[in-house]
Amino acid sequence: SKVIVLDKRPVGTPTLSDFKFKNEDIVDLKDGDLQIKSEYVSVDPYLRGRMSDAKSYVPPFELGKPITSGIVAKVVASKNKDFQEGDYISGILDWKEEQIISSEKIKEIRKVDANQAPLSAYLGILGMTGLTAYLGLTEIGKPKEGETLLVSGAAGAVGSVVGQIGKILGLRVVGIAGSDEKINLLKSEFGYDEGINYNTIKDMKAAIKEACPNGVDIYFDNVGGEISDAVLFSINKFARMIICGAISVYNETSVPKGVSVQPFLIKNSALMQGFIVSNYQDKFPEAGQQLGQWLAENKLTYKETIVDGFDNIPQAFLDLFEGKNKGKMIVKI
Ligand code: NDP
Predict the structure, then answer these.
(1) ipTM of the assembly?
(2) How many domains does the chain fold into?
(3) Which domain holds residue 30?
(4) Which residues, by range, are in coiled-coil regions (predicted)?
(5) How remote is the CA of residue 269 from the centroid of ligand 1, in Å?
(6) Which numbered atom of ligand 1 lies nearest the CA of 44?
C-alpha cells in the first residue's frame, strides 16, 4: 500500500520533491483495530505550516513520517464491534492508500453517513472548511443585517461558504479572488453582490472603495498580505476583521513588511482577531446542524475541485497556491 511522507522541509514555495512515495505492508489486525481504505483526501493550505518546523498551533510533520490531513475512508476489515466492513469514517489520517486504525486511535475518527451527503462533503461543507466559514463569521464577525461583508480568497472552500452565509444573514457581500472566471462564479453560484479580481486590478484600495461604497463592516480574511493591507483603508467604525488565513504569505521566507495596522484599528475602534477553528469545538454540533439544515433547504450550495488518484495528492496541494481550485480541493483515491 502506498504512503506519502515528508522528505524535505520546503524553503519558500513547496515542490513535489519535498514529498516521497513509499510502500508499506499492511500488518494483521489486532483486537479492536480497523483496516481502512482512503476514498477522499483533503488538501489544505494550513498543511504548509506543518511542513516547516517553526512553532505553530499544530505540531510540525516529522521528516520521513506520513503527512496527515482530513480523509474519508472505507472500513475494509474490522475487529472492532462498533464498526463494520463497508462503514465510512473520517478523521485526520495518514496519506496512505490503506492503513490500520488502532483501538487507541479510534476515538479520533467518526462515522460518516454516505446516504446523508456525498462522502466528499464531509471534508468541505460538512467538515472543517464549512465550520470555519460559519464559526469565523458568526463568532468574530457578529454580523448585523444590512452590513457590508468583504471576503478574500472568496472562491475557495472557506470563502465560497462565508459569502453565502453572509447573504443568508442579510449582508451585502463582496468577494476578492484571482480570476474573472472566479468572480463570475462568486456572483452566479454563491450570491456575492460584487467581486474584485486582484490579479487584474491595479489599485486595490480604489477597487475596494468602489465595491464597498458604505465601507467594510466585516472583513473575512483568508489571504493576508497586500490585499488585506488595502482593505484597512475602507473599514468602518467598529469593523470586525476575522484573520482566518494568510495564504499569500505562507511561502515567504522572511516576515513581510506591510501597512501598520494599529492606526486603522484605533481610528475605527476596530477589532482584528485571529481565528482557529479547533478552538470552537464545543460549537461544532450546533454549527454542523445549521449548515446541514441550510443545505437541505437549498439555501447553501458548494463546489468542489476533485483531482483523481492517490499519486496526485502532492500536486493538488501545490495547486492551492496557484489558485487552481474553485471551492474545496479534494483528491479522490
Ligand atoms: P482555498 O480553497 O481558499 O484555496 C486556497 C486559495 O487561495 C486558492 O484557490 C487561491 O485562490 C488563493 N490564493 C493562493 N495564493 C494566493 C495569494 N498569493 N494571494 C491571494 N490569494 C491566494 O483554501 P481554504 O478555503 O481551505 O482555506 C482558505 C484560508 O483559510 C487559508 O489561508 C487557510 O489557511 C485558512 N484556513 C484557516 C482555518 C483556521 O482554523 N484558521 C481553517 C481552514 C482554513 P485565488 O485564485 O483567488 O488566488
Answers:
(1) 0.99
(2) 2
(3) 2-124+303-332
(4) none
(5) 27
(6) 26
Closest CA to 180 of 30, 323, 80, 285: 323
* Alpha-carbon span 185 to 77, nearest angstrom: 42
Q: Are residues 157 and 247 in the same domain?
A: yes
Cα separation, 304 vs 205, in Å, equals 31
Average pLDDT score over the chain: 97
Kindly state whether residue 43 falls inside one of the protein's structural domains: yes
* Domain assignment present for 245: yes
> Which pTM was predicted?
0.98
Q: Which of 223, 242, 302, 322 best tests ligand 1's pocket when mutated (most atoms within 8 Å of CB)?
A: 223
Ligand 1 pocket by Cβ (under 6 Å): 44-46, 128-129, 132, 153, 155-159, 177-179, 182, 222-223, 244-248, 275-277, 320-321, 323, 325, 329
Distance from C-alpha of 46 to C-alpha of 176, rounded to nearest angstrom: 20
Q: How many Å apart are CA 88 and CA 118, to the nearest integer?
A: 11
Q: Shortest CA distance to 134 belongs to which of 247, 232, 242?
A: 242
Query: 57 C-alpha to center of ligand 1: Å?
Result: 18
- Residue 51 CA, ligand 1 centroid: distance in Å: 17
**Tens of pLDDT, residues 289-329:** 999 999 999 999 999 999 999 999 999 999 999 999 999 99
User: Do 138 and 69 share a structural domain?
Assistant: no
